[in-house]
Q: What sequence folds into this?
């Protein structure tokens, strides 16, 4: 599904990714853990095609195809989804309107027919109920005045509707209390599928109690420095990142 | 409205042709010579078959105009206009335009394509020579004539007068004399004075006491629509307890060989009357280098002359190279209300200086201003507004909200509010924000699969929602589409 080889990326003259190697096979859930500033969020932006990053070396293969020159919206239509750490607000645009615009834009890009409003409403209703997203919330402007938990639930709702092949969850647990974390994690777990890969980026181990990964990677100073099973997350929780920061430096 | 537009234009053309009422015979030319003089004013008046009092009115305005100088206070820049190098009267058929669509700015044609305007109609809008003559031969004419006839019948039954102002001057001189120039005096400002001297045509609406106009009046349906030219004059009167909603403009960009447009619109609302005036303005903004666009210097003013009267302006401005326009309300009657809802979009090299004036004279008068300016490209977008309370305007209230949205980093948004209060009990509130479409907001949309143009359209439509909601339904949908098209290519 996703193969990253020797990926180097910088912003201005600041090198952030320094040779990332990572393979996420179809249907697997991989976690990336690491201290602040290790390049986790940059990796998620570079994968999803955000402007402003110079990719100086390496390759990103998605479904066997190089995507470095692909614009963000094409990557989205191809099935890459990023759940944002800080979802953006769009005043005056109802959440429902946004969801429909996004879904139909992707369908159009893939050469599929746009959904009719009743079909769309049916899909939203099913997905929203599972995530405790009320109709009232769907009518409100996108993320405007949403609580932290509402914003994150809204991200997962979008993921459920857009049905990506690769979902990147960037610090999805940040700003969530324990109940909200459970709702969000249940939502994510319900979307686990043999056809879908996930890359879960997190600073803390607690999210991985709920979304149990197949593989855990440790990132430090712009590289994957260690990979292992779910037990690696527990080890990090106990010992912290100190060893890795020193090792990388 | 493109679909209906074709039919409607056909009808108006037919009507024009049917109105070959005798011009004064010694004037044979269809076009007055260049330049402006008393003779030209006389020529226009004679062409319109006007009574003596109207000619005098025009001449007085002309003499006044000679003593005036162009206003310089607006934040717009353009080469000096040579008023002696303009034509002040030309019959519609004598206009010179491109020979075929091949000679028309391709950008403009692309816009027509996007708006889904039929080919033949594109020729008309682009001003291709002879395009309007050819259209008369099209079949659907009879049906459309009956549409207009039905429409006129219904208005007549209600006692509503809706006709060209030139017709009103001849048919209803007493009403015209009483109200023309009573809101925007001939001495008002440089362009209004010029308009008073040389106005070509425009609309006249009279709603009798207690009548609620049975339909939205639209310039589309007016006779002589294609004949109004560059100096349009509109007068709308709502008698006691009357109500009317008037729509002006067209979403398709109109090309015109007249670069200068100086219209005057006057509204009068008597006791308990309400006038709602909506505009969608989309004149040709010029090519990609900013050349050839229309200068739109308009004076629009409403007089809430009666107690508890209400005037509401809603405008969507996307066209013109330069817009200089301040639809205003004089709140004279006690408890009268004025509203101004505006969306001004500028892109390319467009310059917009627009806003409103709310003059509170009566007691407990209320006004509300919602202005949304969107600047993209290398454009400049200024909101200029005055809210004032006379010393007798006790309990006057105003709420103003001016929001500006910037797209890109080469455009400018400016807000110039003037607030004057001579009454201690007046309460004026002013809110203003300026924001930029942030890169991360845009990226969020792209990541969900929207193209950058779809993303901008979505964000902008969210931004202008409060104003769009004020437009009549059929206008609202088109206005949204138009705004998106106007901003295409604004994000690189």
A:
């Amino acid at each position: 599904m996703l193969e990253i080889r020797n990926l180097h990326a910088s912003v201005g003259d600041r090198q952030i990714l320094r040779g990332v190697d990572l393979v996420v096979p179809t249907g697997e859930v991989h976690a990336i853990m690491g201290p602040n500033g290790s390049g986790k969020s940059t990796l998620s932006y570079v994968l999803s095609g955000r402007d402003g990053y110079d990719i100086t070396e390496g390759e990103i293969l998605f479904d066997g195809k190089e995507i470095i020159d692909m614009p963000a919206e094409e990557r989205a239509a191809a099935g890459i989804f990023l759940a944002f750490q800080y979802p953006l607000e769009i005043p005056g645009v109802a959440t429902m309107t946004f969801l429909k615009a996004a879904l139909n834009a992707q369908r159009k890009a893939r050469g599929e027919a746009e959904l009719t409003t009743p079909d769309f409403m049916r899909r939203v209703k099913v997905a929203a109920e599972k995530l405790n997203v009320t109709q009232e919330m769907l009518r409100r402007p996108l993320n405007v005045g949403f609580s932290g938990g509402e914003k994150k639930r809204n991200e997962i709702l979008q993921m459920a509707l857009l049905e990506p092949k690769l979902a990147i969850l960037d610090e999805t647990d940040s700003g969530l209390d324990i109940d909200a974390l459970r709702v969000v994690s249940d939502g994510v777990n319900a979307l686990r599928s043999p056809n879908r890969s996930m890359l879960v980026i997190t600073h803390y181990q607690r999210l991985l109690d709920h979304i149990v990964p197949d593989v855990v990677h440790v990132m430090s100073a712009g590289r994957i420095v260690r990979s292992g099973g779910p037990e690696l997350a527990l080890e990090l929780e106990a010992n912290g990142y100190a060893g890795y920061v020193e090792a990388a430096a | 409205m493109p679909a209906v537009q074709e039919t409607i234009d056909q009808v108006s053309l037919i009507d024009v042709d049917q109105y070959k009422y005798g011009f004064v015979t010694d004037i044979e030319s269809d076009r007055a010579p260049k330049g402006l003089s008393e003779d030209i004013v006389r020529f226009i008046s004679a062409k319109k078959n006007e009574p003596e009092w109207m000619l005098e009115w025009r001449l007085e305005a002309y003499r006044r105009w000679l003593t005036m100088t162009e206003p310089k206070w607006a934040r717009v820049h353009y080469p000096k206009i040579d008023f002696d190098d303009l034509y002040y009267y030309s019959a519609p058929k004598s206009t010179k335009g491109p020979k075929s669509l091949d000679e028309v700015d391709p950008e403009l044609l692309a816009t027509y394509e996007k708006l889904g305007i039929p080919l033949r109609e594109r020729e008309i809008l682009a001003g291709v020579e002879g395009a309007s003559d050819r259209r008369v031969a099209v079949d659907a004419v009879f049906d459309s004539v009956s549409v207009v006839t039905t429409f006129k019948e219904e208005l007549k039954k209600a006692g509503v007068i809706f006709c060209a102002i030139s017709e009103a001057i001849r048919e209803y001189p007493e009403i015209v004399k009483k109200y023309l120039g009573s809101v925007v005096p001939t001495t008002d400002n440089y362009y209004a004075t010029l308009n008073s001297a040389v106005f070509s045509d425009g609309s006249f609406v009279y709603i009798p006491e207690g009548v609620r106009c049975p339909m939205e009046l639209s310039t589309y349906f007016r006779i002589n629509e294609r004949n109004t030219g560059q100096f349009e004059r509109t007068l709308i009167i709502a008698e006691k307890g009357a109500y009317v909603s008037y729509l002006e403009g067209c979403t398709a960009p109109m090309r015109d060989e007249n670069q200068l447009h100086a219209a005057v619109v006057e509204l009068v609302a008597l006791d308990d009357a309400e006038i709602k005036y909506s505009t969608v303005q989309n004149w040709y903004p010029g090519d990609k280098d900013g050349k050839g666009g229309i200068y739109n210097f308009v004076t629009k003013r409403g007089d809430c002359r009666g107690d508890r009267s209400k005037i509401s302006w809603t405008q969507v401005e996307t066209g013109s190279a330069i817009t200089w326009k301040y639809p205003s309300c004089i709140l004279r009657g006690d408890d009268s209300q004025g509203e101004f809802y505006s969306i001004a979009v500028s892109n390319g090299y467009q310059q917009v200086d627009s806003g409103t004036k709310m003059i509170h004279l009566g007691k407990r008068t209320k006004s509300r201003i919602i202005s949304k300016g969107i600047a993209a490209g290398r454009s400049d977008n200024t909101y200029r507004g005055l809210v004032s309370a006379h010393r007798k305007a006790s309990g006057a209230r105003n709420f103003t909200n001016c929001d500006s949205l910037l797209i890109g980093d080469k455009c400018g948004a400016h807000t110039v509010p003037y607030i004057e209060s001579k009454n201690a009990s007046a309460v004026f509130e002013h809110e203003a924000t300026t924001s930029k479409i942030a890169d991360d907001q845009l990226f969020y949309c792209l990541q969900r699969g929207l193209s950058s143009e779809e993303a901008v359209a979505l964000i902008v439509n969210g931004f202008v929602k409060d104003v769009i909601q004020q437009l009549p339904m059929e206008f609202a949908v088109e206005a949204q589409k138009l705004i998106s098209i106007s901003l295409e290519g604004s994000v690189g």
